[in-house]
Design brief:
Number of strands: 2
Distance between the termini: 12 Å
Number of domains: 1
Structural class: mainly alpha
Number of helices: 7
Strand order of the largest sheet: 1-2
Strand content: under 5%
CATH class: Mainly Alpha
Oligomer: single chain
Radius of gyration: 19 Å
CATH architecture: Orthogonal Bundle
Shape: globular
């Protein structure tokens, strides 16, 4: 079987639409959580660390079952919704506050439009997810239906590295300096990658279930 013989499910089913909705929802929640830096002893990360690894798992499922083209479509949908969310928060921020509402400063502190953070988040997501999907499909061209663990871990390692480097550099370089910056980058990367490795049994089951439910797969 050559790489051109690889077959994927058609990205037009209800299951695909459901997975895209989950993918985009996890992304939006993670982006809001990422505005807060959190610290556990020497470990510094952001609030996006709780759910963002699941975005990559959802991306893996889309790439494995539906292929590169359908996965890219989901990535661009997520990107567009993230851009819309940022624009909406910005418009709400600059809109005149009601006289009885005294939380303008609190709103700006949490959801305020910070161009550097927004740019970092969106570019990191776009670069990381596109690389994640590309690497997974390229490995699948060689392994076919075998060695699923290899393409899941390999794609995650590449995608998360690109995402973390782009986001951390644009968002926090100069704000967090020296060893604290590199601790933030390294810990964030290894945490997200390790979490996906730990969740591999769940990812396996989800992929297997989706493949069984999709009549057009293979």
């Amino acid at each position: 079987m050559s790489s051109t013989d690889l077959k994927f499910a058609k990205g037009s089913s209800e299951i695909y639409a459901f997975l895209v909705a989950v993918f985009a929802g996890l992304l939006l929640i993670s982006n809001i959580g990422a505005v807060k830096l959190i610290e556990f002893g020497p470990i510094i990360t952001d609030g996006g660390a709780f759910l963002f690894p699941l975005v990559y798992i959802a991306g893996d499922v889309l790439s494995e079952v539906y292929g590169l083209r359908a996965a890219r479509r989901a990535i661009f949908i997520g990107f567009a919704l993230a851009a819309l969310a940022s624009l909406t928060f910005y418009l709400v921020q600059i809109a005149p506050a009601a006289s009885a509402w005294g939380n303008q400063e609190a709103f700006e502190a949490v959801l305020g439009f910070v161009p550097r953070i927004v740019l970092a988040s969106m570019l990191g997501f776009l670069v990381g997810q596109l690389l994640n999907s590309l690497v997974l499909v390229k490995i699948k061209e060689r392994t076919k239906e075998k060695a699923l663990w290899l393409r899941l871990i390999g794609s995650t390692a590449v995608g998360e590295l690109a995402d973390t480097l782009v986001f951390c550099t644009i968002a926090f370089y100069g704000v967090i300096t020296g060893s604290e910056f590199w601790s933030y980058v390294i810990v964030g990367y290894f945490y997200k990658t390790l979490l996906e490795v730990i969740l591999l049994p769940i990812t396996y089951r989800v992929i297997s279930l989706v493949k069984r439910l999709e009549p057009t797969y293979l």
